[in-house]
Design brief:
- The protein contains 13 helices and 17 strands.
- It has a nine-stranded mixed β-sheet. It has a six-stranded parallel β-sheet with strand order 3-2-1-4-5-6, with helices on both faces.
- Helices cover 31% and strands 21% of the residues.
Length: 503
Amino acid sequence: MSDEPPPTVLILFGATGDLASRKIYPALCRLHEQNLLPTPFTLLGVGRTPMDDAAFRERIRTACSNPPPSDFLARTHFLAANPASPEAYPQLATKLYRLFPKTPIPLRLLFYLSVPPALLVPIVDGLVASNLCRSSPPKGWCRVVVEKPFGSDASSARTLNLRLASAFSEESIFRMDHYLGKETVQNILAARFSNTFFEALWHRTHVRRVEITAAEDEGIGHRAGYYDQAGALRDMVQNHLLQILAFLAMETPSSLQDRAIRRETLKVLESIRPIPRKRIPLDTIRGQYLRATLKGTSLPGYREEIGIPSDSRTETFAALRLFVDIPRWHNVPFCIRTGKRLPTRVTEAVIHFHPTPPLLFRQDNGRPLPANQFILRIQPDEGLLLRFNLKTPGTSFKTQEAALEFHYRSLGSLRLPDAYERLLLDVFHGDGTLFPTAAETEAAWNVIDPILHAWQTDATIPLYGYPAGSWGPEAVETLIGEPGETWRYPCRRLSMDGEFCEL
């Protein structure tokens, strides 16, 4: 018997969709350029658009910045089939048999479900009915990648997880959250657990609050159908931002193995204090962008976007104040905000340390000096920045703020891999570290569900309007709750300048 590895086949449902062209095909091409794809590797696209292999290969060639070589394209194929129809799955089995006549079902199958949520269960049902999910250990495996959203609430997430579990083991299910593939998100673990001075300070004794921002300068684009059903809380907070919170707040894992890290992130998500119903108007803020003129350009309001009802109450901005009930973080607020049509596109986490007592040094108004901040920039201009105080040159003991900073761009020729590159490579290797488990997704929904329910049923909770191009509703400042303190207002470029920098 040959010792050669069996073929790895990526079966991509939604192969003619926007995500495939923007993210998946470019990531596969870059992995091929670096000789990081499994050997041998085959890509089989599945979609409803009538198309032959030649047209599919041209689509891939167009999507990649560097045209892929012919040997790569020769291993890409297309099956025109409707994933919602049970008839598609015998067709898929036949296609696989023709591609691999000596192995009726290849031993390493990766099903990538880049499809709308309504298609997830029909696809899993079809795979089960056609017996396409079987594998032959130790060499064989059968895995599935699922794009967000992972349900629309806790109940639907549980239903989806149970259906996935009927066909795949939990170790074989990879829930794609592309934020977790970004270098600086992963660097949270390295910064904390490989540096004594950071980990020693990573505690309520020294930390005043933690702030997480995911700002987008664009509107909803062509996603009206999805976005008006989801809103900012479902689209960004339930998945991306709560996962970042978990990385920031987790205790030291026993190892860097995926199970150890997932165990600690789950503990954090399960320890987030539920917001009591009476405090939801105080600890949450929602907003919706309004028409405004920015630098001479008129920007439409959310309700003026194509496909959005004129009376929509879907939030395009969401901010929360959460608490993690573990000893390390007792009563330390985690302030989270995200929104569309904000001044810039930026995602970052900020550790705000307690200010020093104004005994020796203070500001001219007598208040404590600006508190130290540790900023982890996730996108763009990925890097780290530590803000601190030092003496202004001269004879007096006046102080000024300074910074120690690191930018990944300073590494010169060292290229930052795209998030999809990193995550696809992890899937091929079976590494689930950066993929939420079923328990994590459900724990995150348990945090969000009461807020969604209150927003949907209580007309007294305001939906604030905010001008497109601003930093959201003014009421968001109430979540900070400390006199004289505000959110950090970041620039696209990681810098000291905050809200005063030129965007």
